[in-house]
TrEMBL record:
Gene3D superfamilies, A to Z: Cytochrome P450
Membership in a protein family: Belongs to the cytochrome P450 family.
GO molecular function, one term: heme binding
Native organism taxonomy: Bacteria, Bacillati, Actinomycetota, Actinomycetes, Kitasatosporales
Listed GO biological process terms: cholesterol catabolic process
Protein's recorded name: Cytochrome P450
Length: 407
């Protein structure tokens, strides 16, 4: 394999090429690739280098895009992850108010109810798709609750969102590029209308919180954020927030099935759930990478990197760095400490929804751990054709035998 191959989804067709990343980490300096457009990409494959770049936004900039794949021009709109200060700071400050510990605590019962209902449905079914019917369904239902989508509209919002995930995968049966564009437009129009409704009649939801922050900041009842800005944030949240849990939950369950001793340990000791959540997120690393633009000449990994070039933060490699993790290729639900970089490695772009993702995974494992020994795959998992998200488009499965009594 060549370094440039990693920019192609085909390099990930059989899974993340961990052996090749191990080889790159062992080389001195930084690996370098040139894409089809002649742009230089320096690969940050070590944990220390990824963290350094993530926490230095003055040198490593997000605009105009953090993507290296077909997804980077999928909207043409200023997504929050594509912005730098001060625009990014302004939006993030407002958005963070919707993800405070108090607001996440208030979501605990609704999320638990969604988990229980989904598990009841799939345990009673003759067969189901772990990826579609559980791992994707769970975060999308939770996000419609967080945003405040009325109950009667939630199925439509979820269906639109299904068309905006796994972009660039020609085999994903829910969507085509044309359907994805139409679905994105549907979400934007719907959320802009919902913003206007919340301005007139605020509730206890994310949109009302964002508008309330505007009032606190002297924005005159929401004048500080335009309806399109809030709608774009919500649309991004539905897709990106949904995919993070979708990838983690699917890959985490597969890891537990492939490591029965770890599953047994988790079933026997519920106190391992929090560390199991962190290990699943490290092990899977939902987003394999993001890119940054180099704003000024600098040195990283012992190499001179020049302004105008790009660096790629390979989180999936940093999370297997032997210099940081003991036996990194071992899945260990009791792993502590676990300084993974799956949520960005710190800095201003650290994932704003990381607390929500952890809550969803924690409540799922708490409810499902005792059921998982009864889970069997009824066909081979089918990976998503992308080098960006470490995901599966389909994992056919079913529950067999009698329910396992909770320990």
């Amino acid at each position: 394999m060549r370094e440039s191959d990693l920019l192609d989804a085909a390099a990930f067709a059989g899974g993340v090429p961990y052996d090749y990343f191990r080889e790159l980490r062992a080389r001195p300096g930084l690996p370098r690739a040139v894409d089809a457009e002649g742009r230089v990409h320096w690969y940050l494959v070590r944990h220390a280098d990824v963290v350094r770049a993530a926490r230095d936004p003055e040198t490593f900039r997000s605009a105009p895009s953090t993507m290296t794949s077909v997804r980077q021009d999928s909207t043409g709109l200023p997504l929050i992850s594509f912005l730098d200060a001060p625009e990014h700071t302004r939006l993030r400050k407002r958005a963070f108010k919707g993800f405070t510990p108090a607001r996440l605590a208030a979501l605990e019962k609704p999320v638990a109810a969604v988990v229980d209902r989904i598990l009841a449905e799939v345990t009673a079914a003759d067969g189901f798709d772990l990826a579609e019917d559980v791992a994707l369904r769970l975060p999308l239902e939770v996000l419609t609750e967080l945003i405040g989508v009325p109950a009667g509209d939630r199925e439509q919002v979820i269906e639109w969102t299904r068309h905006t995930v796994n972009l660039g995968d020609p085999g994903y049966h829910h969507s085509t590029p044309e359907k994805a564009v139409a679905a994105f437009g549907g979400l934007m129009a719907y959320f802009e209308d919902l913003v206007r409704q919340r301005r007139k009649a605020p509730g206890d939801d994310l949109f009302s919180v964002l508008l309330g922050v505007d009032r606190e900041d002297g924005g005159g009842g929401g004048a500080g954020l335009e309806p399109e800005e809030i709608a774009l944030f919500a649309t991004t949240l539905m897709g990106a927030g949904g995919e993070t849990t979708y990838c983690s939950l699917t890959g985490g369950v597969l890891a537990l099935l492939e490591n029965p001793a770890q599953l047994a340990a988790l079933c026997a000791d519920p106190s391992l759930v929090p560390s199991a959540v962190e290990e699943i997120v490290r092990w899977v690393t939902p987003a394999t990478h993001f890119a940054r633009q180099v704003a000024r000449d600098t040195e990283i990994g012992g190499r001179r990197v020049r302004a105008g070039e790009r660096v790629v933060l390979w989180y999936t490699s940093a999370n297997r760095d032997e210099a940081v993790f003991d036996r990194p290729d071992r899945f260990d639900v009791a792993r502590r400490p676990n300084p993974h970089v799956s949520f960005g490695g710190g800095g201003p772009h650290v994932c704003i929804g990381r607390g929500l993702a952890a809550l969803e995974l924690r409540l799922f494992l708490t409810a499902a751990a005792g059921l998982l020994p009864r889970l069997e795959l009824t066909g081979p998992p089918v990976r998503t054709a992308t080098n960006f998200m470490n995901s599966y488009r389909s994992v056919p499965a079913r529950f067999v035998g009698q329910p396992r009594r909770q320990v």
